[in-house]
Model the fold of this input.
Amino acid sequence: MEEFVVLVTPEDHVLGLMEKQQAHINGLLHRAFSIFLFNTKGEMLLQKRASAKYHSPNQWTNAVCSHPRNGESYLDGAKRRLDEELGIQTDLSEKFNFIYKADVGGNLWEHELDHVFTGIYENSFNLNTDEVEEVRYISIEDLNKEIAEHPENFTEWFKIILEEYKHHF
Done:
């Protein structure tokens, strides 16, 4: 099934829909959300993207990154993808939004108006293996060290969003 993203202006006014991969080829601004989940020790949940993903396979990223559907709120989309990718439900709080553009290789771009959500989760997962290879929790200190030593192991957008996140907290 083809997936579509919602193209927007920087002020979040809808311009129309475009097939997801085409929007990534063209580098057009579209709606997105990112979820940072933590356990009660303050460690961040990372997911390793499935090897079959059309871009950034086998790279570590935040708990979930995706796109709301046409007519779907950012929060509803985030909750939907938590269930679809990780097989979980948890409360989420929106923390901020910003625009970024990242070259993800293969002549593909992520150019997103990204709404960033956080939540707490410590129970079991039911991973969708078409989306997620594995998950793990990591301290922010260890995460910063890993990214500094092996930036190629992490998605480009995660590195950008993580830096933006640090400016807000």
In short: The radius of gyration is 15 Å. The domain at 4-168 is CATH 3.90.79.10 (Nucleoside Triphosphate Pyrophosphohydrolase). The helical segments are 20-26, 74-86, 140-149, 156-168.
